[in-house]
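Intended use. Records like the one below are meant for learning the mapping from a protein sequence to its folded structure. Do not use them to infer anything beyond what is encoded.
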Amino acid sequence: MCGRFTSAAESSQVAERFGAAVPDGYRRRWNAAPAQQVLAIVRDGEERRAELMRWGLVPHWAKDLSVSYKLINARAETILEKPAYRALVGSHRCLVPADGFYEWRVGPDGKKEPVHFALRELELFAFAGLWTRWADRATGELVDSCTIVTTAANGLVAPVHDRMPVILPPGGEALWLDPEAPPELAVSLLVPYPAELMRAVPASRRVGSVANEGPELLVADTPAE
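Structure written out for the chain above:
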């Protein structure tokens, strides 16, 4: 599972890394949470487009937005089988820019504490995602939403959680976005990222509240005397 992540790069860095202009509403995030707006990169013809989307998929058949809380992640192993996802794998794949994600473990005091996982050199990367557009039948409002694909945990993440988000290798990002790439080929990218290319450090328990934001969340709390 992936329920919180970080995407703290400046908009100019994101634009350069992914080759897409970043919308004005983008802001750096150290505690991105479900139902919030996150950045997603999609293919628009031959170009890439970056836009803000609700994190948590809202399928076209949904009655309201509440279903999105159950669809923040899509399991790679069943992505071609589940009704909410299988129709999107062919033409609605997206990249979700990030620089890390959190999972929780039980600390020495018996309380849960977050661990921040990132690439070894702390560089930007992309989660594999799916997106769709939902129309509110009552108001006509259009809502773009996305989900992050997960896979089995690698050796670094496994001691904390049995799942991890799919981090695409840079060479696989274009393939994941390519609508001409067969779904079966795209799905072959949905594997655990190599553990030796990642790092893990304790983070602040303040991550647990969606109201908290800022780089200080990446610093573990000082034990009470």
